[in-house]
Task: structure prediction
Amino acid sequence: MNQNSEPIIIQGGMGAAVSAWPLAKAVSLTGQLGVVSGTALDAVLVRRLQLGDAGGHLRRAIAEFPLPGITERILDRFFIPGGKSPDAKFASLQMLREAPSHAQKAIIVLANFVEVFLAKENHQGIVGINYLEKIQLPTLPSIFGALLAGVDYILMGAGIPTTIPGAIDRLCEGKSAELQLRVEGAGRDERFHTHFDPGEFTKERSPWLRRPKFLPIVASATLATMLARKSNGAVNGFIVEGPTAGGHNAPPRGKTQLDADGQPIYGPRDAVDQQAMLRLKLPFWHAGSYGAPEQVVGALEGGAAGVQVGTAFAFCEESGLRQDIRQEVIQMSKKGELDVRTDPLASPTGFPFKVLSLFSSLSESVNYQLRKRRCDLGYLRQAFKREDGTLGWRCPSEPVHNYLKRGGNEEETVGRKCVCNGLMANVGLGQIQSNGDDELPLVTCGDDVKNIARFLKTSEATNYSARDVVEYLLSLVNTKPLVAPY
Result:
């Protein structure tokens, strides 16, 4: 069994600001690995500031930012004492392109620093941050901001991040780094990159930054083996995620087939080869419906370092999900009324996406049809090569005429939902639409959501804490708290 050199429980790095700093800190204080979501943190930061920064937490963290000449401009532009009017729209950020401006990169760096700083503040527990490989443009400045705050682990899924370890190494040394962009229509020998130079912010005086451990999120031993052998830097372990996990899922291996409800069918080929994982001699954690103590023990006895659990934490009281959503889901779990669908079309990424059916959300067809399409966050846009050789950007969830004008196919827009705006609405940061309506949420979670009522201490209880989840998961395991190794 795990000898406490690694955490047994990794809290999932769920959609934008669900696994925000209060949740990650609460898990870390139990001695396990708390994880903040690194998705859309620039938009999260500026919208929180426009809501007035209740409690002053953001401004407290911003005051600790170690690089000069950044924070004052951002506070002057976005902080609204007392918060904006409820019917006022959020001031938006310009969408990123392959060469972000200095101001765009500065907000990304600061936002990632703030989130990790607050999760690690005033304790010695360990904290990680989770990124999506599919969201490429903010990745390098995001990592640098997290490094400045002393992040302990970097997790990354939804892609094949072979070049991320090397980029982490270079950023730790204060050196510039680049990532190759995926570009539709590019020739086999054509390369497009996005760059980030820490010296642009540090004036070449960057101190050496401690390297965090890097854990890719994989769906097969084959991918884990390839990453272990071919990555351009150290891979320190893996999170092995099954198709019942929340958020984006890997598509089934082989030709995709759909069941009667239009969901992808997963079969024996999608089961992870446990022996192959053990042969890599790197720690790994199972993910996807591991929310019971017997499953934790089973994972440990099978040679895993532990498990990653997301859904149980998504609905605890420290979660960033709106309270009304958490309460509705907990009550539905008590009654056995929850339904989760693996939607093969919802996400613009092309990955299957777990969606929880809720009446007042975009999971419902009528709400989806009534929403006017728009793309004003743009994190899941795809790069394409124009006829003149320059890059353009498009999203299958944007207005159809815009997508077609940019060379996309109409069939690719069918059923696509605006994941970016839906996830922001989940956490109370949704934009006000032009007609005055609020953006509707799009709640993602794993199949295990049906069992979250197990964490309630009594039948009358209506909430539970992150500590309740950890204590329940470890109730059959002898363990002691971990602290950061420094």
Summary: The first strand starts at residue 9 and ends at 11. The longest helix spans residues 102-120.
